[in-house]
Design brief:
This protein is of the alpha+beta class. It has four helices and 13 strands. The strands form four sheets. It has a four-stranded mixed beta sheet, sandwiched between helices. A four-stranded antiparallel beta sheet has the order 10-7-12-13, with no helix packed on it. It has a three-stranded antiparallel beta sheet with strand order 5-6-11, with no helix packed on it.
C-alpha cells in the first residue's frame, strides 16, 4: 500500500514541474507519533521532499498524547494552526493525518490522488508579493494585499529526518520518521500591501531552515513563501 502511494506521487510529479519560477507549493502535514493511522504519512512526505515544486512541512500535534505516548516534536501552537484550518474548512474537529495544501485545500494524507489534485491546483494560483530573506531579516515587498491584510509567519524546520522510537501507546515498538519536522512557528505581523521588514530571532537549534510565509488571515490561502539555507 505504501509503495503504491509513493509510486503515484513520483509518476504524477513531472506534470507539476512547469511552475519553475513559482514558490514551491507548501504541503502541511498534521500528524502525531502516537496516532496509529499516521504511520504511513512520513513516507508520503519523504516522497514529496524529493520534488522541487513542493515543500512538505510536518507539524506534530499534542492532542493524542493522552493515548499513552507524549509526542516529542509537538508544540501547542501547531495544534492551534491546525485549528484555524479546521474552522476555515468547516470540518468540526481536527484529525490526523491531515494535509493542508497552500492553505487552499485539505484532505487525508494517505489519499494520493486527492493530494496531487490539490497540489496541481495550488501550483496554478498566481504568485503573491516578493519575499527577501536572510538569516536575520525578512522583507515583504509592496503588492496587492487581500482585504484585511495578510499574516506573515516564520516557520523553521529541520531538513534532516527525525526518527523517534515510540515506547508506549498504539504505536509501541515502532520507529516514526518525521520529514521536515517543524521546530518553530511564529507570527511576525500583518502585511497590508506596503513594503515591510522584520528582524528574525536566532534559530533555537543549529541546522534549521527558515521559511517566511505570507498568508491570508485565519488559515487562508498562502500567497507567497521563501526559504533560507540551513542555519549554522
Amino acid at each position: 500500500m505504501r509503495g503504491a502511494l509513493i509510486a503515484c506521487f513520483l509518476v504524477l510529479a513531472p506534470a507539476l514541474a512547469q511552475a519553475a519560477t513559482r514558490a514551491p507549493v507548501i504541503v502541511e502535514l498534521y500528524t502525531a507519533q502516537g496516532c496509529a493511522s499516521c504511520t504511513g504519512a512520513g513516507e508520503v512526505m519523504e516522497a514529496l521532499s524529493s520534488r522541487r515544486d513542493v515543500l512538505p512541512l510536518t507539524f506534530s500535534v499534542d492532542y493524542w498524547d493522552y493515548l499513552g505516548w507524549t509526542d516529542t516534536l509537538a508544540r501547542p501552537e501547531f495544534a492551534r494552526r491546525q485549528k484555524a484550518y479546521i474552522d476555515r474548512f468547516e470540518l468540526g474537529e481536527p484529525y490526523t493525518p491531515q494535509v493542508v495544501v497552500d492553505g487552499r485545500g485539505q484532505g487525508g494524507a494517505l489519499e494520493p490522488e486527492l493530494l496531487e489534485t490539490l497540489i496541481a491546483r495550488a501550483a496554478q494560483a498566481p504568485g503573491g508579493p516578493r519575499i527577501s530573506l536572510t538569516a536575520a531579516r525578512a522583507r515583504v515587498a509592496a503588492g496587492r494585499a487581500p482585504r484585511g491584510g495578510a499574516e506573515v509567519w516564520m516557520v523553521r524546520y529541520d531538513p534532516r529526518p527525525r526518527s523517534v522510537q515510540v515506547r508506549r501507546g498504539d504505536n509501541r515498538g515502532q520507529t516514526v520518521v518525521a520529514v521536515n519536522a517543524v521546530r518553530e512557528l511564529r507570527r511576525l505581523g500583518t502585511w497590508r500591501g506596503r513594503d515591510l521588514a522584520w528582524n528574525l530571532p536566532e534559530a533555537s537549534e543549529p541546522g534549521l531552515v527558515t521559511v517566511v510565509v505570507v498568508q491570508a488571515p485565519r488559515g487562508g490561502r498562502i500567497l507567497s513563501a521563501e526559504r533560507s539555507q540551513p542555519s549554522a
